[in-house]
Design goal:
Distance between the termini: 24 Å
Number of helices: 8
CATH class of the largest domain: Mainly Alpha
Order of helices and strands: HHHHEEHHEEHEHEEE
Strand content: 5-15%
CATH architecture of the largest domain: Orthogonal Bundle
CATH topology of the largest domain: Helix Hairpins
Strand order of the largest sheet: 3-8-7-6
Largest sheet: 4 strands, antiparallel
Length: about 475
């Protein structure tokens, strides 16, 4: 092929303005059709990439959802078991509370009877005290009468003694009456003593029964409050028992729903997995179609000197050759060693996003590559970039417009900070690894933020002292 530097043309890079033979016209049509085919296939591949990414995201989401569903099912089983135990316990508690409430009510009723009896005892003690007081008063009257009778008996004895023999009988009667009155007085005094003692006991009983009556009244009040509290406790426990049973019913419903949901979820996951597998297989086939279409485009370009891609192919080959010569020149002057030029130890630059890396050759390449790469941007308005990559897709030195200082915005960086990055995608790797005279590829260029642009990428290998360093990429748009 003729070097583009030796071609005469008017305006931007284009084929010579000469009449085409029928064979050349057919070749041109074939080249155009092959390029259009490659365009469509690459666009489909990009769409499949997006679909596959979404499918994988959906698959991951469904897996997470299924895992969460399993966790919900396990948790619900635990809830059901816990609620079952709780329901049994609340039922037993309800029975215990009802039995306790009944016992307390019976005890409360008995307490009321005892309190009433104590209050009655207090009242009766008061009555007894009053009766004893009356008895004591009457007894005192008896003692007084006995004393008077005793006095009369003494007087009678004195009179009987004066009467002599005639009053002897009367004296005996008087003596008997005197003895009776004495006994009556003594009995009255004893009764008074006993009544006094009994009255003291009754007073103590009345006082104690009054205290007990007050305590019994307090007990009755407490018993009433206890009964009210027990009614509330009984109602609360009964409500808890009902709620536990309702929870158990709901847990059963959740279990039934999960038993229906989990198989359906598994079917969805299987379907998505099958779809993802199919998409992956289709994607692989499309990649093979891309390779085939690129081979067709490359063959037509190789056969037809008038093909639209030929000037770009010649330019890429020329620049690649210039880079090879320049690298060999800096090696000869000792500016860099061969091992440093071929350094593949990529050291990340901290804080860059997307990540940028350095090698031992990056600084020197930043110096020698721009004078060779920048002029290519002026060859044709369709040229987007011109940059060399090593065999791993590492692009050390990009065009100035794509070598801006990184910011905190990764989307902006993706579009404007493309130097010192590794482009190990299909196109980048093939461009770096190819040792063919040239490689023509069609691809979607990621511009950041979900934006893509359809591009053609022609590359030519770069050799240094017989070793394959990488390739020169010249990318240009379709129109």
């Amino acid at each position: 092929m003729a070097d583009v530097r030796n071609s005469e043309h008017r305006g931007p890079m284009s084929a010579a303005n000469t009449a085409l033979s029928p064979t050349q016209e057919q070749s041109e049509r074939l080249t155009t059709a092959a390029a259009a085919l490659g365009y469509e296939i690459v666009d489909i591949a990009g769409f499949l990439d997006l679909v596959e990414e979404h499918a994988q995201a959906q698959s991951g989401g469904v897996k997470i959802l299924r895992a969460r569903a399993d966790e919900v099912a396990l948790a619900n089983a635990d809830v059901r078991q816990a609620v079952g135990h709780m329901a049994a316990q609340t039922t037993a508690t309800v029975n215990d509370v009802e039995a306790s409430a009944a016992l307390v009510r019976r005890t409360s009723e008995q307490t009321r009877h005892v309190a009433g009896w104590v209050q009655q005892v207090a009242a009766r003690a008061e009555d007894v005290s009053e009766t004893l007081t009356a008895v004591k008063k009457n007894n005192q009257q008896i003692a007084t009468i006995a004393t008077q009778v005793n006095t009369l008996a003494i007087n009678a004895k004195i009179e009987a003694a004066r009467a002599g023999a005639r009053g002897r009988g009367f004296a005996v009667v008087a003596e008997a009456i005197n003895e009776l009155s004495r006994q009556t007085r003594d009995a009255a005094n004893q009764i008074t003593t006993n009544i006094t003692t009994l009255s003291g006991w009754i007073a103590e009983l009345r006082e104690e029964s009054g205290v007990i009556a007050q305590q019994a009244t307090a007990v009755l009040e407490v018993a009433g409050k206890t009964d009210t509290a027990l009614v509330r406790v009984e109602a609360s426990v009964t409500s808890a028992d009902e709620q536990a049973k309702r929870i158990a019913v709901q847990a059963e419903r959740v279990e039934r729903a999960m038993s229906d949901f989990r198989p359906a979820l598994r079917q969805i996951e299987d379907a998505i997995t099958g779809t993802s597998t199919g998409i992956a297989e289709t994607h692989d086939r499309v990649l093979r179609l891309i390779d085939t279409s690129e081979a067709i485009v490359q063959s037509t370009a190789d056969l037809n000197e008038q093909a639209v891609d030929v000037p770009f192919i010649h330019a890429a080959q020329r620049i690649a050759g210039d880079i090879s010569e320049k690298m060999q020149a800096v090696l000869a002057t000792g500016q860099i060693t061969l091992s440093s030029l071929f350094d593949r130890n990529y050291r990340p630059i901290p804080g860059t996003n997307p990540e940028q890396v350095l090698t031992e050759a990056t600084r020197l390449l930043d110096h020698i590559l721009p004078p060779l790469q920048e002029p290519a941007l002026e060859l044709d308005p369709r040229v987007v970039f011109c940059a060399a990559v090593d065999v791993n897709g590492y692009l050390p030195t990009h065009n100035k417009k794509f070598s801006k200082s990184p910011t905190q915005d990764p989307v902006w960086n993706t579009a404007n900070c493309r130097n010192r990055r590794i482009f190990d995608d299909r196109v980048g790797l093939k461009a770096g690894k190819s040792t063919a005279p040239f490689l023509l590829q069609v691809y979607r260029r990621d511009m950041g933020g979900g934006s893509f642009k359809m591009m053609k990428d022609v590359s030519a290998p770069v050799f240094v002292q017989g070793r394959h360093w990488g390739g020169l990429r010249l990318a240009y748009s379709f129109d």
